[in-house]
Amino acid sequence: xxxxxxxxxxxxxxxxxxxxxxxxxxxxxxxxxxxxxxxxxxxxxxxxxxxxxxxxxxxxxxxxxxxxxxxxxxxxxxxxxxxxxxxxxxxxxxxxxxxxxxxxxxxxxxxxxxxxxxxxxxxxxxxxxxxxxxxxxxxxxxxxxxxxxxxxxxxxxxxxxxxxxxxxxxxxxxxxxxxxxxxxxxxxxxxxxxxxxxxxxxxxxxxxxxxxxxxxxxxxxxxxxxxxxxxxxxxxxxxxxxxxxxxxxxxxxxxxxxxxxxxxxxxxxxxxxxxxxxxxxxxxxxxxxxxxxxxxxxxxxxxxxxxxxxxxxxxxxxxxxxxxxxxxxxxxxxxxxxxxxxxxxxxxxxxxxxxxxxxxxxxxxxxxxxxxxxxxxxxxxxxxxxxxxxxxxxxxxxxxxxxxxxxxxxxxxxxxxxxxxxxxxxxxxxxxxxxxxxxxxxxxxxxxxxxxxxxxxxxxxxxxxxxxxxxxxxxxxxxxxxxxxxxxxxxxxxxxxxxxxxxxxxxxxxxxxxxxxxxxxxxxxxxxxxxxxxxxxxxxxxxxxxxxxxxxxxxxxxxxxxxxxxxxxxxxxxxxxxxxxxxxxxxxxxxxxxxxxxxxxxxxxxxxxxxxxxxxxxxxxxxxxxxxxxxxxxxxxxxxxxxxxxxxxxxxxxxxxxxxxxxxxxxxxxxxxxxxxxxxxxxxxxxxx
Length: 689
What we know:
The chain is built from 13 helices and 34 strands.
């Protein structure tokens, strides 16, 4: 019998209330430990314990004493119970580093039991993440038996790269408020695998904290032998996994990911998910800069990054990152993630500017391009110098040779400003120094043309009045009815809302850039009150077509999907997920996405890098990227649709999406590399003396 108190620090209440619930739950648990000597309390997450330490030191000392005696059992090893699909591999490593590091520093030992009982699904590579952090076992609840059948409730869970942990899917629920636990225990006993004699049954009031009650503890004490063939023992997960370890070889093996539950969580409240990606990538680049350049204040800068990572780790909590909390919580989370990215960017400045200050020469306009990555870079870079468009735009390299450039529009709507585009090659850790001068270049850069086109992009894309094709694939921005709740509980594993129509193109395609390095077509489309701007571009050095989409979304209870349609069924599919590539079936079900997707049919192939799209499905010959959903915020079935019809609707307003498409396919390893390059391009800045 596993006494616990599941506590969401944020969900249908603000963080302050979650902290209050932590203190009340910890006090209650310690009191029950004093009152009932056989009772054992199981608790997860360093964040939970940190709140006690900083706000009630006396209570924290009671917790530490209970840990020392083995009656307060530490599990999880993470900062919080995060969403277990969307965070990157680096984020999971940080989650575990923060959680296990705190356990070591405050309690003298880490945990060996993983514990994400409320998360909505679990990436296939979680066994590796756990094993690398010293964890050999795992407790979870979702997906349930009706969502993903398993050969047994206790099994060996194996990642695609061979790491393995023993896992139990909780049979009934991780908490219960009932005083009479009879039905709860009976459901658990029905799930005991035939080759085992032990099973975990979780009890205690939860979600808003609470923990086991006196009546529950006394009920267990009075009914130790009340169930034929079973004995109820107050215990903890480590004891259970130790008890079944000798039979591990008899347990069935389950490979891959654990899905599907609440598929809507991966396409709702997109601002949080985009902000998470920005923070992850900025922090990774900042850490790489500090490690490569070794500035004198490296320890201080690393400390700043560590604190920013803690904020990121907290906001990966499954109900925050999943977009299922109150709207104010979502706004706060996005703000804190943006602040973490901003802190990382300031660390980048602090590490790089002193290191390259020797390149600043009065009267010389120099541009630094620095690649802190461990991977080489070879492609276009873009930078907007503070100079007038009347400038002659001569760019030279370190040897004084002219570098071919293309002048493109500024990001600002202001006449006279511009950006420069040029090709650059850098090895891992390399830097290049370019110089901008007013001397006439050897060849004038190509200027923008306004000529409308029907065929463009070197034959890589075909545009007509009503259609857009990239190679043999046609692209459609579709709007579907979506009357599922915030989680999409009623959707099961796939979206099946009625197709309401497509965004309709307005005007004609306009040629916005005409080389010599990049070509771009632009067009606008409309649906109801929503607007979409599409930029389609390619470069001479790449086989990819880039799709940049800006949407102003003004739809309720609808979803936006990019359908990339082929002429033949998809027979092979590999997705990028947290931890690496993962083969998946083309079965029409919705899956969380971690950067891109590769598909092939009998003849056709397609690779798509989509670092800011988080949910996709493949059905027949169609690859469907779920871009946006707009249910009511924090709306949970079975609450009627017409309840408080003035409730806020999610994801209204402006959104941007950036995709690279290879219509002839691409090796999956190269696709992953391009996703990283899109997300963490070389750093560029100017030094002018």
